[in-house]
Write a structure and sequence with these properties.
61% of the residues lie in helices and 0% in strands. By secondary structure, the protein is mostly helical. The chain folds into two domains: 47 residues; 60 residues. The chain starts with a helix and ends with a helix. The model has no long low-confidence stretch (mean pLDDT 85).
Length: 135
């Protein structure tokens, strides 16, 4: 459960304060918040480190957007693959997104396969698989 979506920081702070003062049992706080023991103790530690400044806000550790150069690398790789598919001399008829990911990885660019497929759909470099066509 995402505590920050169901409770305010003040509500959680009051429960943790009650626990610290011996007024509420740990299990009761866990049940009220819908969390397990590990999450409880992580919140408690955070609260004890700074009771006045306690917050449920956190910073994401992952970057949501790719750097522009990575976007260009993906686009370039998709265009190369499209040229192979469009060449009537070659027996290639489908995109191989895993191969694109592997080629990018060899260049030092780590990108999720789902990201490559999303970019392929956006740029028109996507063919429905035979399984998708059956639906």
């Amino acid at each position: 459960m995402q505590v920050h979506k169901s409770f305010t920081a003040e509500q959680v702070k009051a429960l943790l304060k009650g626990y610290c003062q011996g007024m509420i049992e740990r299990k009761a706080v866990e049940d009220m918040l819908g969390i397990e023991k590990t999450r409880f103790f992580a919140l408690l530690k955070h609260y004890r480190n700074n009771p006045e400044g306690f917050s449920l806000a956190y910073r994401r550790k992952t970057v949501k957007r790719l750097h522009g150069s990575v976007e260009k690398e993906i686009e370039h790789a998709l265009k190369e693959e499209k040229c192979l598919i469009d060449d009537p001399e070659l027996p290639i008829t489908d995109y191989n997104y895993s191969a694109i990911r592997d080629r990018l990885l060899k260049k030092g660019t780590k990108v999720a396969l789902s990201t490559i497929i999303d970019r392929a759909k956006e740029s028109g470099c996507y063919l429905k698989s035979s399984q998708e066509n059956r639906s």
